[in-house]
Amino acid sequence: HYDKGNSVECTFISIPQAQETLDCILSKPCWMWGCEMGANSFGVVGGNEAVSTLLADELLSPDDGSPTKRLLGMDLLRLSLERGKSSKHALDICIELLEEYGQGGPCCKEDSDWTYENSFLFADAKEAYVLETAGISHWAWERINAGEYRNISNGISIRSNWGALSKDIQSICKENGWWDGTAKFDWKRAVGAGGRAHSSLEACGREASGKVHLETLAAKSKTLQSPPNARWYVEQMALILRDEDSGICFRDLTGFCSTGSQISWLPKSNDVDDHSHFFTAASDPILAKYKRFTFADTIRSDEDDHGSNELWDIWRSIALQKLRLTGDTLDMLASIENDALAELDIQRKNTQNKSLSFADAVRKEIDLLQN
């Protein structure tokens, strides 16, 4: 709880603080205030991706072409998770802040000229929303109903199935010749392709692979003799996030790499211990294992990282040195993930044999890697 008039210092700018914020678990680069993905204690999860549109030049200063410092997309995500009590509430907060303060600023610690627009995925146990942005403060959102599936991946993906649009975006697109003003407004065709129809309007690369994975998962779940349980779904999602061939999993040593991986299981329950969030806290989700966090875990302070920064550095060092782990070490690491996933089993939940807390699992993984 905060007094009226308090402010919160984001990565580059300060804005008024909400009088109440929610407990959150965040996966974030250590140098910025915002986050790339996370969850809150009301069962809302969110993720952020970089995108690019024809309005991207709005983010640059007219004086020297450098990125104008506003709220980063990662700041918007954290603010939305700290304040949003449902996925729709988080969506509305994100849009409100985007319109009031705008997005922009250097998005890389080592490259002050790199900036981008953002897309977001917000979900709770009932529904989900994709929010995509263009320029400083333009946006479109799409609702995903219960039983449907959706993925985002570094590209504009909303077409004519939007639920709402920012106030002036249609007139801007019409003035620029990106929309004729009569056809159903296609967000991606307009802000992503200037109204031109070509093959790149269809999903490609990681986005296409992710879509195929989800389609396959949905079909597979219907062929099983009994309905799949929570553990089955989380294990299947872990396999997807470990798909290196499609580029979903980045293991590059010199360029971009996966900076973290998160899987959240959100049953329709008011018990925070039933909402399970699995994090690798590492750059390599193939070798690093998922560890379970719940809001029933003990949090020592607002800035408690549960040892995850230390673990991230260890895994990155192993990758850069191209070290090979022994079979025994790999087996013991696998047991950490198995222990976390076992907490999703109904039989396990009814016993006193609870899995390690997230912090204890991180410490166990650190000890294994250092010995």
Tell me about this structure.
The structure is a single chain. This protein is of the alpha+beta class. The protein is built from 10 helices and 12 strands. The protein has a 7-stranded antiparallel sheet, with helices on one face. The longest helix has 17 residues, at 205-221. The chain is globular and about 65 Å long. The model has no long low-confidence stretch (mean pLDDT 92).
What are the defining features of this structure?
globular, 7-stranded antiparallel β-sheet, 371 residues, alpha+beta, 3-stranded antiparallel β-sheet
Distance, first to last CA: 43 Å
Q: What is the residue-averaged pLDDT? A: 92
| Number of beta strands | 12
Main beta sheet, described?
A: 7 strands, antiparallel
Order of SSEs? EEEEEHHEEEEHHHHEEEHHHH
Strand content: 5-15%
Question: Largest sheet, order of strands side by side?
Answer: 3-4-5-6-7-8-9
**Helix coverage percent of residues?**
25-40%
Radius of gyration: 21 Å
Shape: globular
Q: How many separate helices?
A: 10
Q: How does the helix and strand content classify structurally? A: alpha+beta
Uncertain runs: none
